[in-house]
């Protein structure tokens, strides 16, 4: 390739012409060279450059790799300061030294040098700096490192092990802004749930990286080859960019006292799953934790045997899958001639300021409780004019009657009642969730997908497996409406689920930001909030939700309806528990006020007064699309009285 070819075309042309072989673990080989895990690997660029160079040479000699990454994964101000060094002095020095070492190692070869940029947080998501939540601090940290790497003469940026949306996208935007001619490889560290440890959604990160101008997107770290392959099949439906895959050696791979422990039987899975990954669109393949030059040499042998005709066929297959997925966008299923909206959806879309839908929660009975009074309460609500009730899914994670059994009992007694079924992702396995997707459609098409509560009370010692989180569950129901199953299979009978999400108005700004990047992006069409107890929070919610709806309509061509929650407080103790144990936004001032009441009756009266104030504000002052009422202690008579007193229901 001509030396006059730009750096951008250097990587891009190789990705277009064939498979680019990347290197593997740096840290693992450094520990085998005697370096402690408690020592900064990045400082070795100036303290032991020969050792770093020897790692690069091992990959070049054993596997003739096409791309090596600089030893600068943690060469940012937060990581360096955590090792007691002044970041002002060392960020530029260490990054430049890392590039110089790599450049000298690849001299006389065809190999490119990628500037490694890691996260500003630990892999657990814990902060390394007190200002890490500050976008300005994040931008400044990445700007220092990107400038140092770019000016030192790299061939591409490798933004890797991304487990924070704000960090990864900020780094990508800065790299594009400061060095527009240097290509960017963007790699997410995803868990098996399809989200990062910061619970940022993989699909959102990949789509945003594509939109922001990355040249290659994919995965590294966290997953073994088999697990990573499953997610590569998903990624190929979200982007036509070349895909990268750099898995860990094994599922239980970890460093322990400087020794890498992994399933040795997995040594060959890099090559075994490598062929599948390449078929699924992977164009840059290498390794991460535990992957050595020996493993990468297997990748070389694999790549060398791929015929150009096969590569063209794999590209065509990738394009077919991507084009098919693009035709199936959230919202399109409503255009089907056989699509029938639920009553809740019809009333929300009618957008009638006078007759807005009311959803009242009716939880299943606990163990030992008879369902009769709960069914009687639902009948009482229906007779008062409530057409829609929601049914919780094991709220509080204490044993209750099964949600579906209780829903069937309600439908048997009050068949005209429309149900909203809460779907808790707690205790869900892949098989059980797939069963839910197929079964619930015949019981109720309104679903509210939540992550779920941890076990409590006598059952707090119980384990809490989560194969899914709320965002993954929302996406699963949305995709099922398009005829896609959980594992990506197609040509299933399409469903008509009306999919909702929950929102806690406490810490509203970050919650709304998460709702936009996660729940709304995954396909949520409505939102039920936790109860609100003051006008200021209600006003902020209305403003934020209005802005989100406008943005959603403009950018995605669809809508999301917000139903603020209301709950009546019974006592100061009740209010305090709701705030402290359940995280509800009960103002401290209101709790203190109720604590100052002379009698329990006076405190109860104040709680009902606040409820009616909120109901009146929602009805008369704010244009929310509906109302969500949570009734404590099965006091449905009080709920009906409050709704009538505020003109939500006729007298």
User: Averaged pLDDT, please?
Assistant: 86
Poorly predicted segments: 1-5, 123-131, 252-267
How do the strands of the widest beta sheet line up side by side?
A: 1-10-7-6-5-4-3-2
Query: Which percent range describes the beta-strand content?
Result: 5-15%
Radius of gyration: 28 Å
Keywords:
single chain; 651 residues; alpha/beta; eight-stranded parallel sheet; eight-stranded parallel β-barrel; 24 helices; elongated; disordered N terminus
Kindly describe this structure:
- By secondary structure, this protein is α/β, with parallel strands linked by helices.
- Helix content is 45%, strand content 13%.
- It has 24 helices and 18 strands.
- It has an eight-stranded parallel beta sheet with strand order 1-10-7-6-5-4-3-2. An eight-stranded parallel β-barrel has the order 11-12-13-14-15-16-17-18, surrounded by seven helices. It has a two-stranded antiparallel ribbon with strand order 8-9.
- Helix 6 runs parallel beside helix 7 and helix 21 runs antiparallel to helix 22.
- The radius of gyration is 28 Å and the shape is elongated.
- The termini are far apart.
- The relative contact order is 0.07.
